[in-house]
Write a structure and sequence with these properties.
The protein has 394 residues and is an alpha+beta fold. Helices cover 47% and strands 15% of the residues. It has 11 helices and 9 strands. The longest helix has 37 residues. The two termini are 33 Å apart.
């Protein structure tokens, strides 16, 4: 099997790299983070001009119908550049719209850069289980009424529209397990972020991104705003969140590549006892360990990219969870080694290395951490093929 990107994918990635090197350098990024908005309108327009917002959107809605494999080199370059604009949040939300169907108008606006999305899925008690939902949607004539709160909504205050998960009010709350058991109990909605009854508390996260806690109080939602067919909400949420997790894996690879390159350069230039510290064998072993971790993670990320669109949900879940768990372990080792090899400068805000480490840390905790995805991987049917094995059912 050929795991190399084709010429079009490489050309687009190279275009993104040239743009980031010229217009989105470290100093420019710091200025954007320090601004009141926390994002750049010019950078957003540039992303649109490069075709990145249209890339994952179907051709019928003005997009390029890009697959997860097409998205992989792009997300790697954005991870290298430490992008703080709401690109991931928007394409993640667009995935919900695409899987739901009948959202052509919104997808056209996404492709044209006219619509920013955010996915309000996590809650204080849910941790990594998106099926543990306390927010409710009560059916009324002509639609629903939403109540509840969502936490750590990435770019929630910068979004024009929100994708929101809610438990149907007449259903029992999902337990800690969530998952398929929660399927009949939940629904997904797309609604205007500025609708009456919505309060968004905006803040900056440790990696320079923006997030918000969003509160819903008697928010009226039209019936056509519901994305899922009755009883199929969890299937849509599960598939879309796997896509989002795969995108985060790709972004992490780009950040790890940049962190590795910066660390290797530091070992070549930093001198001690009159020689570059990279001459010391023990440090050579540590940089080699970093390289091995990144390449192993890259292999599983490629597997996830190939299978995240697979019609078989079991295949998709196993590939994505394997990648997210492996990359979670890799980014921890790579980040910690890079900081240590840089010495005290490794945690200084003056160096991009510290910012890459912070972003990697946040990626590791987003849409399921390493332990969550290991448990999810092991819990898939068929993991233990021997029916007599006493581990079956774990």
């Amino acid at each position: 099997m050929d795991f190399n990107f084709n010429s079009e994918q490489l050309q687009l990635a190279e275009s993104v790299r040239r743009w980031s090197d010229k217009h989105y350098g470290f100093a420019a990024r710091k200025a954007i983070i320090a601004s009141k908005e926390g994002i750049s309108a010019q950078a957003w327009a540039d992303l649109c001009e490069l075709g990145l917002l249209a890339l994952p959107v179907p051709e019928a809605q003005g997009g390029f119908n890009g697959s997860a494999v097409d998205m992989m080199p792009v997300m790697q370059e954005l991870g290298r550049a430490l992008l703080v604009e709401p690109y991931f949040a928007t394409v993640f939300g667009a995935r919900f719209l695409q899987l739901a169907g009948s959202q052509e108008g919104l997808l056209e606006r996404v492709a044209g850069g006219q619509l920013r999305l955010a996915c309000a899925l996590g809650e204080r008690q849910s941790r990594h289980d998106l099926g543990a939902i306390a927010s409710t949607a009560r059916a009324v004539d002509g639609g629903y009424v939403l109540d509840g709160s969502k936490t750590m909504v990435l770019h929630g205050a910068q979004a024009d529209m929100l994708i929101v998960s809610a438990r149907l009010a007449d259903a029992a709350p999902a337990g800690a397990a969530g998952g398929v058991a929660a399927a009949p109990a939940m629904a997904l909605f797309v609604l205007e972020a500025g609708a009456a009854g919505i309060r968004r508390d905006d803040y900056r996260t440790i990696d320079g991104m923006r997030a918000a806690d969003i509160h819903f109080e008697q928010v009226a939602v039209a019936a056509e705003a519901r994305l899922d067919a009755p009883g199929l909400g969890w299937i849509l949420l599960d598939a879309a969140s796997d896509y989002g997790a795969a995108l985060l894996c790709f972004e992490a690879l780009g950040a790890m590549d940049a962190l590795f390159a910066a660390t290797l350069e530091y070992l070549k230039t930093r001198k001690q006892f009159g020689v570059p510290i990279g001459k010391f064998q023990v440090l050579q072993h540590r940089i080699a360990d970093m390289h091995i971790e990144i390449e192993q993670a890259r292999s599983l990320a490629m597997l996830a990219a190939v299978n995240v669109d697979a019609p078989d949900p079991l295949l998709r879940r196993r590939a994505v969870s394997a990648a997210k768990a492996r990359i979670g372990a890799a980014l921890t080792l790579v980040g910690q080694q890079a900081v240590q090899l840089h010495g005290g400068m490794g945690v200084s805000a003056e160096l991009p290395a510290a910012h890459h480490f912070k972003r990697l840390t946040m990626i590791g905790l987003s849409l399921g951490d390493t332990d969550h995805h290991l448990a999810r991987f092991i819990g898939q049917n068929g993991f233990f093929p021997d029916a007599e094995d006493d581990r079956v059912g774990v």
